Amino acid sequence: MPLNIAIIGAGPIGCTLAHLILKSPQSISVTIFEGEASSDTRSQGGSLDLHDESGLLAIKKAGLYEKFLEHARFDGEAIIISDKRLKRYINMDGSTKESNRGRPEIDRPQLRKLLLDHLPEGVVKWGHRLQSITTPAGSSQPTDITLNFEHASLSGFDLIVGADGANSRIRPLVTNVQPHFSGVTAVRFGVSDVATRAPELHSLVNKGSLFAISDHKALMAQQLGDGSLSVYAMLVPPSADWLKTSPYDTNDMKFAKPALLEEFKNWHPQLKSIIENADHGLWASNLDMLPVGTTWGHRPGVTLVGDAAHLMTPFAGEGVNLGLADTVSLASAIESASSSSTPSTSLSSAVKSYESGMFIRAKQCQDLSYRMMKCILFKPNAPEATIEEYAAGALETACPGLLYPIAKLAINAYFLYFRAWHRFWDTEQTYDASLSEMPSKNE
Question: Is 384 helix (H, G, I), strand (E, B) or coil?
Answer without folding.
Answer: coil
